[in-house]
Design goal:
With 77 residues, the chain is mostly helical. It has 3 helices and 2 strands; from the N terminus they run αββαα. A two-stranded antiparallel ribbon has the order 1-2. The longest helix has 14 residues, at 52-65.
Length: 77
Amino acid sequence: MIEVLDAAEDLFCEDLTPPERSPGGEVHWNGAVYRPVTFTHRMSAPPDGDWAPVWAAMRGLAATHGDENVRLAVRFG
């Protein structure tokens, strides 16, 4: 991946990590196109993934008690 970072530095004339690049700041290298992506919580735990039962329970609680009264606290470890 160092080669892609070097290609981006040549393109943007400075050393920028993907989140610092302007929107649409694509890097074309070795026949591929690399685009900066900022990961969101939704990408990490999509509504139809392993956490689907949790999201369904939270929607049910929110319907009963209101959105502002439902929180999710998760403890790992």
